[in-house]
Amino acid sequence: MATTSAARPAPPRLTPGAFLVRGLAAGLIAGLVTFVVAFALGEPSVDRAIALEGAGGHSHGAAADDHDQGHDQGHDHGAADAQADEQAAGPGMVEVSRDVQRTWGLLTGAIVIGPALGGLAALAAAALVGRLGGLSARGSTALVALLGFVAVALVPFAKYPATPPAVGSGDTIGGRTAAYFAMLMISVLAMIAAVVLARHLATVRGVEPWTAAALAGLGYLTVVGVAAGLLPTVDELGDFPASVLWSFRRGSLLTLAALWASLGVVLVALVGRLHDRVASDLRRRELAASL
């Protein structure tokens, strides 16, 4: 009997480590989904933008660095542009072809970003399980994914939407990048503060949960709205075709939505299964103790 008991596997637990493992797995799956969506919806618009740039309709801007480094390096600009690109690259640096960028390069980026976001989202969910009123582990995880999409993707995108290659001046790329990350940081910190405020109002002040959530949400919108008004506006589109711009931005937003949606769905499913196993093990132990 003692040997059998010792060989019994350890009971499942809702620990941060268990959440992290499931977050990494969910992030990997989300990264693969994101690659498919980005390849199907985003890359055609990038190709059209590069074609416009190569045709001489727009200046060779640095906006490509904001989304996919070196989009223009694999494109045929003609002998003069190719020589200029080679000189700019410097000795010992290898240019990456456009075909590699849109396939293996895109896939590599997706499967790196996916698990990273999945791990962070899982740890946030682990910290909030049992601390959001009557929300279950599934509900808390789903809420984290939704708030993550809003704070990390949607709000920064609304202020600084994605721009394709051939848009933007190389002289302003530093300022544009700093402004974007400032908006991202403010949005994330404001969302964390909103969650803390909602929990404080509901648990300490006795405010109804939905009222507390509404007040915290209003506070978040106020903070990011003020930040968006104070941060510099970027308007370097020039005469870039509106149809290509719309297609590119739509593809970019759908790619972000696919990343967070697939991450949320898979992570909720994995966390839900873990929660059910923990609850089942607890019931068995209680039943055994009562006998």
Summarize the structure in words.
The chain is an all-alpha fold and 291 residues long. It is 73% helix and 0% strand. The protein is built from eight helices and no strands. Mean pLDDT is 83; it is low at 1-7 and 59-90.
In a few lines, what is going on in this structure?
The protein is an all-alpha fold and 291 residues long. It is 73% helix and 0% strand.
Features:
291 residues; mainly alpha; 0% strand; flat; disordered N terminus
Shape: flat
Cα distance, first to last residue?
17 Å
Class based on secondary structure composition and strand pairing: mainly alpha
Average pLDDT: 83
Task: Return Rg in Å.
Answer: 24 Å
The portion of residues assigned to helices is over 70%
Sheet with the most strands, sense and barrel status: none
**Strand segment count:** 0
**Percentage beta strand:** under 5%
Task: Give the topology string: H per helix, E per strand.
Answer: HHHHHHHH
Fold blueprint:
Elements lengths: L1 H6 L8 H39 L24 H11 L8 H31 L8 H23 L13 H31 L5 H22 L11 H49 L1
